Amino acid sequence: MIIDHIGLVVSDYERSKTFYEKCLAPLQIKLIVEIQGWAGFGRNGKPEFWFGPHGDAHKPMHIAFTAESREDVNRFYEAALAAGGKDNGAPGIREIYHPNYYGAFVLDPDGHNIEAVCHKPE
């Protein structure tokens, strides 16, 4: 990862926490810590994706999470929709980026475009 961590302001902390706990689980990303009203999600004990309710919610952003397999991308997409996310691009190859770019896109409760992507060949 080229970014150490990222933080977003969200409009409803509990709603966002529930959404991300469910949709990131298939990617082996989980809630690591909660500090002063902020949730830190990550893998292997290192929180890299943070959010909290302090201030005005950011305008929609695009955040892509790495997936180990195409099946993980599919599970992310289904979990995100079940958690209340809105479809913004079903799982599939996006050859415009490269021949093995397999991604899925959902809008989170604040309208952020959240993606899971696998770059590995099938």
Write out key terms for the chains shown.
alpha/beta; 8 strands; four-stranded mixed sheet; 122 residues
Written overview of the protein:
This protein is of the alpha/beta class and 122 residues long. It has a single domain, classed as 2,3-Dihydroxybiphenyl 1,2-Dioxygenase, domain 1. The chain contains two helices and eight strands; from the N terminus they run βαββββαβββ. The strands form two sheets. The chain has a four-stranded mixed beta sheet with strand order 1-4-3-2, with helices on one face. Helix 1 (13-24) runs antiparallel to helix 2 (70-82). The longest helix is centred in the middle third of the chain and has 13 residues, at 70-82. The chain is globular.
What count of helical segments does DSSP give? Answer: 2
Largest sheet: 4 strands, mixed
Radius of gyration: 14 Å
Task: Write the CATH homologous superfamily.
Answer: 2,3-Dihydroxybiphenyl 1,2-Dioxygenase, domain 1
| Total count of domains | 1
Q: What class, by secondary structure content?
A: alpha/beta
Secondary-structure element series:
EHEEEEHEEE
The strand order across the widest sheet is 1-4-3-2
Query: How many angstroms separate the termini?
Result: 22 Å
Approximately how much beta-strand content do the residues carry? 35-45%
Would you state the CATH class?
Alpha Beta
Averaging pLDDT over every residue, what do you get?
Answer: 94
Coarse morphology: globular
Q: Percentage of helical residues?
A: 10-25%
Q: pLDDT below 50 for ≥5 consecutive residues: which ranges?
A: none
